[in-house]
Design brief:
Layout: H1 7-31, E1 61-66, E2 75-76, E3 84-89, E4 96-103, E5 106-115, E6 121-123, E7 139-146, E8 149-158
Parallel strand pairs: 2-8
Antiparallel strand pairs: 1-3, 3-6, 4-5, 4-7, 7-8
Length: about 160
Amino acid sequence: MRLGTNTTDQGRRRLLALLSTSGGVAATTKSLPDQWVKPIVNSVLLPTHAQTSPASPPALTISCVGIDNPSGTPIPENVPVGQFTMTVTPNPGAVMVNGTIFCDGAVQTGPFPLSLDVNGQFTSPSGSPSSFSCFSGSILTFQIEFMGVVGQCNWPIIDPVP
């Protein structure tokens, strides 16, 4: 008698397959705990290819050039700062940045949106009038922020010219 020629052999095969499957289930069932327990994980190590490095800040600089009064030049109280230009390098083109004006680190106005021109520059209007006072002995700061990089112009305020 050859295997597979009668229904008895086929039945045996099915029975063996069923027993091997249920035997595997029985063995697995005996190795499981009766109740779920919270796993204890002290640390997780990522494989080298899955580790990430911290994001580096953008490779930008923001510089200030005072057209009327260079940054750092003392300016008498109640005298306009004058025109100045702030430049983002490398040139991001015409984009929006945030501008803020400070007096001794306290926000006077802003943040407000400013447009950089196609050269990546912001040039203040001539005269730069302001609606706030930064008194003698203070530092006036105009700051712009782009992609997390901050640049600023600083002018020490001195006693008014008599």
